[in-house]
Amino acid sequence: MFALFIERPVATTLLSVASTLCGVLTFMLLPIAPLPQVDCPVIKVTASLPGASPETMAFSVATPLERALGQIAGINEMTSNSSLGNTNITLEFELDKNINSAAREVQAALNAAQSMLPTGMPSRPRYYKTNPADAPIMILTLTSSSYLIGEIYGIASTLLAQRLDQIAGVSEVSVSGGSLPAVRIELNPTVLFNQGIALDAVREAINNANVRRPLGYLNDEQSRWQIKTNDELKTAADYQPIIIHSHNNAVVRLQDVANIKDSVQDIRTAGMTAGKPAIILVIRREAGANIIATVDRILAELPELRKMLPASIDLAIAQDITPTIRASMTEVERALTIAIGLVILVVFLFLRSGRATIIPAIVVPVSLIGSFSAMYLCGVSLNNLSLMALTVATGFVVDDAIVVIENIMRHIENGLTPHKAAIIGVSEVGFTVLSMSISLIAVFIPLFFMGGLVGRFFHEFAITLATAILISLFVSLTLTPMMCAYLLKESKKFSTYKIRGFGRLLLKIQQSYIVTLNWVLTHQRNVLLVLLATIGLNIYLYISIPKTFFPEQDTGRLLGYVRADQSISFQAMKTKMTRFMTQLDMDPSIDNVTGFIGGSRMNSGFIFIALKPLNKRKETANQVIVRLITQLANEPGANLFLIPEQDIRAGGRQATTSYQFTLLADDLDELRDWEPQVRKALAALPKLSDVNSDKEDKGTEMAITYDRDKMAQLGINVTKANNVLNDTFGQRQISTIYQPMNQYKVVMEVAPEYTQDTSTLDKMFVINKQGKPIPLSFFAKW
């Protein structure tokens, strides 16, 4: 069998060349990532009800959604977070759950739960196939000195985000730091009270003034005319003359009772970079996508995107994770190249033959390059672990070649021709090489079948190493003997150890080994005691050495999380966030700081920190964190948590620390009682630091108590009373403006200066069944 490859050198050479070419081609197709893809299948569900309290969101939105989603098979963990006007539900599935199948089941569950949700929701709940704990691959910022932040947000969400989302490998582009443009109507409750105009009457008048409905057309025997009216209002100026009330030929227009302006849907959100207001685009990749290729495609698209933007809007890259990945991959590739070079050098030193050294110098690269094809077919990415596996495989690959080469050279030294020596030599050791390779592969069989996150993590390592060994086995039994037959010279006295130079050193080593071996054989009891002591020492070291799933990396990126009291105002939170970011910007180890606040959680903010390259800073990421936490610990009323970004982050939840524990209870009050006890017990442990909890109390509330008996006597129901409160304080979206690129909202609430104390409640009234205004104070207390 082996003689077939020796007798047909051209066919054997072509086979090896084909394997190498396939490896080169598939190498360019392999996904590139810092580490194997080990993310759990995670789907995030979001729902909004503007103005609703966290309790309302939890009980009326989160609970029915959780009940429907909980029936899906394969859910490993389901967590929900309800805040002012928003609910976020994170579904983490088992590792073997197909994410697309899970998405279909989630959509079906959302459809089933729709009838149980409140009727006032502006849109249906949505889901995203994304992992909130996964680090973004790139962060972009938009700033301008002339455009309003709402206008920049509109451009970012309708133009940039959609174009970026179409790039292959991009999973999600989230836009933060602002909200869509909107017409905001800020009512004066004092004027409304004096005029006797109810808030629901204002809302109804606005809704009736801005409509978009089909009107039909006129036609005769020859032509047709589409009917078109000025029924749509587009700008704040269009809303000012709306008549909201008339009495005795006197009319009250909207501009008489409100300040109408072109603004944004949510004024309580902000983004910042380099001390300037900014809109932030956070880009995440699809699972398994080539990070470097995806980022390269984004970078190639940026010049075109800049051309589409107005000249006064600056598009900048705030964070890019690929430089560290490129550097680490280059380092591993260099280590692999050095390993191959050292192996060839060692072979030359021992074989003392240039022709014999050429053989492993060709066989090793052919085996390793051929492994790329198998990696591609098995879905393995090009990452630090797979390249490490190839580095480890280099020694195994050259072992197979050396066994074959040395046996063939032995026969040549005994007087056989290289051709006959190759046939006999490979036949003698063929089974030995086979058994060696199978034994090595057997060592990694447990990794193939290991379950859980660890098994997923090391699966690619085992596949890469096993395929490299198998390809090496084939090459060593085909290409290696063929090259020996045609490259090695016939020699009657062929010695691998010439008695000079390096050969003398080898002889001395051999003599020393013989002396040592003789001593060991004559002192067996002592050697056995040394062996037992060594085993005991290894056990002790194994127990005492620190253990972790994966060593903490310095990726050059930090994630900051700012948390303040739940009752903090947006203005106060923005001030604290600005102070943190200003101090971070001044740090000598930091290159760029970008952050945003607002949205679903008013008392929290996120900061993305890009450190300077390692050669331009004196501290590691952890040292920077320790120093910054100490410096920024004096900000009253707010805490800053900093964690180093890692290439591998398991789970579907974001965390402010390295480890997470979940405390569960059937009763919320019991959970609140136990949380501080558990937190204090953990904080007392000497090996733990910065112990915190994501539990938040209810915060300060304005409790309004209805007298239901009086409400019944006055002809008022709770729905009407709640609608008045929502119209007043809830940033209620009451109408829609349709534009070619997007849809914008009309938001109604009282002017901000009337929401700072309870005096506005004294001016509120509800229209009863008889059409009479009834002051809120008649049937409610606060």
TrEMBL record:
<feature type="transmembrane region" description="Helical">
    <location>
        <begin position="12"/>
        <end position="33"/>
    </location>
</feature>
<dbReference type="InterPro" id="IPR001036">
    <property type="entry name" value="Acrflvin-R"/>
</dbReference>
<feature type="transmembrane region" description="Helical">
    <location>
        <begin position="358"/>
        <end position="382"/>
    </location>
</feature>
<keyword id="KW-0472">Membrane</keyword>
<keyword id="KW-0813">Transport</keyword>
<feature type="transmembrane region" description="Helical">
    <location>
        <begin position="461"/>
        <end position="488"/>
    </location>
</feature>
<keyword id="KW-1003">Cell membrane</keyword>
<dbReference type="GO" id="GO:0005886">
    <property type="term" value="C:plasma membrane"/>
</dbReference>
<feature type="transmembrane region" description="Helical">
    <location>
        <begin position="527"/>
        <end position="545"/>
    </location>
</feature>
<keyword id="KW-0812">Transmembrane</keyword>
<feature type="transmembrane region" description="Helical">
    <location>
        <begin position="421"/>
        <end position="449"/>
    </location>
</feature>
<dbReference type="Pfam" id="PF00873">
    <property type="entry name" value="ACR_tran"/>
</dbReference>
<protein>
    <submittedName>
        <fullName>Multidrug resistance protein MdtC</fullName>
    </submittedName>
</protein>
<dbReference type="InterPro" id="IPR027463">
    <property type="entry name" value="AcrB_DN_DC_subdom"/>
</dbReference>
<feature type="transmembrane region" description="Helical">
    <location>
        <begin position="388"/>
        <end position="409"/>
    </location>
</feature>
<keyword id="KW-1133">Transmembrane helix</keyword>
<feature type="transmembrane region" description="Helical">
    <location>
        <begin position="335"/>
        <end position="351"/>
    </location>
</feature>
<keyword id="KW-0997">Cell inner membrane</keyword>
<dbReference type="GO" id="GO:0042910">
    <property type="term" value="F:xenobiotic transmembrane transporter activity"/>
</dbReference>
